[in-house]
Design brief:
Elements (H helix, E strand, L loop, with lengths): L2 E5 L2 H14 L7 E5 L15 H9 L4 E5 L2 H8 L12 E4 L5 E6 L6 H12 L2 E2 L4 H4 L5 H7 L3 E2 L2 H13 L11 E3 L8 E4 L3 E7 L5 H14 L7 E7 L6 H10 L3 E4 L1 H5 L9 H7 L5 H7 L4 E9 L2 E7 L8 H4 L4
Helix pairs in contact: 8-9
EC number: 3.7.1.12
GO molecular function, one term: cobalt-precorrin-5A acetaldehyde-lyase activity
Protein name: Cobalt-precorrin 5A hydrolase
Length: 331
């Protein structure tokens, strides 16, 4: 993520430059500086911004915002934009003398706590971390999820898990919080969802986007596959301009990837065979072969057909290393 830093005094701007020089590692594009105070030095004129516009622009960029100045300025400025801890960016405050670095928003999922430690280490400041799991030296499930690109099925369950972690006593199993890793819909337990489910799709030319979308979504829901686990939509090269497939990928916000018949024919896993498809496209199977071509290790849903549409669903083994302090809670 990029870092946007705003300051309001000459001393604050000098600290901003120090932070940039300490963290950018020669890439000045990683960190942008802005000045929201009264311009008394012509050298600062090119950095001048309107605070409200700077916050509005930066808040929705997905990058971290750092205020070098009073915490009250930061709180009042970001208040209209704070929405959801899953999407709000990291926001930090640093006093202009560089004594304290304080994350005030999105400490875990947005990475503000980790960034605070990094900045503090770079400038010799004290990171002021206030989240309960951190001050009690407990693992934070949302930090683990964020670092590994895992979705959280229910933020209330995540909050309950964190509360149980604080109250947990090793010898009382009834109090032990639990979570699972799954690509399937779970409603009764905290579930971390890896993005590793691969869709392979074939469809007759001219199929409507709505018909294909309904077909795919009905089957995903029937087999309780969580949409947040989806990684890509895949097919054969001859379908790369098929409007229904492009529309489906856009609807699911997934990349659409196609493979040549030659690439699909190199797949060695057992798949179903169609003489008609082989004669038409040069490969005997589109949906299952494209799933494996995209990196799936196994099929969780073999070929399903309906009205000139085919669907196969595969899963790629997620390469996850569970921290030792969380393993005891994984089921």
């Amino acid at each position: 993520m990029r870092l946007h830093i705003i300051s309001f005094t000459q001393a604050g701007f000098s600290l901003s430059e120090r932070i940039r020089d300490s963290l950018s590692h020669g890439d000045s594009d990683e960190i942008s500086l802005a000045f929201g105070g009264k311009i008394a030095d012509r050298d600062l004129a090119s950095f001048a911004v309107t605070l409200s516009e700077w916050v509005q622009s930066g808040f929705h960029s997905g990058n971290a915002l750092v205020f070098v100045g009073a915490a009250g300025i930061a709180v009042r400025s970001i208040a209209p934009f704070v929405n959801d801890k899953k999407t709000d960016p990291a926001v930090l405050v640093i006093d202009e003398k560089g004594g304290f670095v304080i994350p005030i928003l999105s400490g875990h999922i947005g990475g503000a706590n980790e960034l605070a430690r990094k900045i503090a280490d770079a400038i010799g400041a004290l990171p002021v971390i206030t989240t309960a799991s951190d001050v009690n030296n407990l693992p934070a499930i949302d930090v683990f999820a964020a670092k590994n690109n895992l979705s959280i099925n229910d933020m209330k369950l995540a909050k309950d898990f964190a509360a149980k972690m604080l109250a947990y006593k090793d010898k009382n199993e009834n109090d032990r919080p639990q979570f699972t890793l799954s690509v399937y819909i779970k409603n009764d337990i905290l579930s971390l969802i890896p993005k590793c489910v691969i869709l392979g799709i074939g469809c007759k030319k001219g199929k409507s986007a709505k018909e294909l979308e309904n077909f795919v979504k009905e089957n995903l829901e029937l087999y309780k596959i969580d949409y947040r686990s989806l990684e890509s939509v895949n097919s054969v090269d001859q379908k790369k301009d098929e409007n229904a497939l492009i529309s489906l990928a856009n609807s699911l916000k997934l990349p659409f990837v196609t493979f040549s018949a030659e690439e699909l024919n190199k797949i060695t896993q057992k798949v179903s065979h169609s003489d008609f498809v082989e004669k038409t496209l040069g490969t005997d199977n589109v949906c299952e072969r494209s799933v494996f071509a995209a990196g799936a290790d196994e099929l969780v849903l073999p070929k399903i057909s309906r009205d000139g549409m085919t669907l196969a669903v595969g899963i790629r083994k997620a390469d996850l290393k569970i921290p030792e302090d969380l393993k005891n809670f994984l089921i």
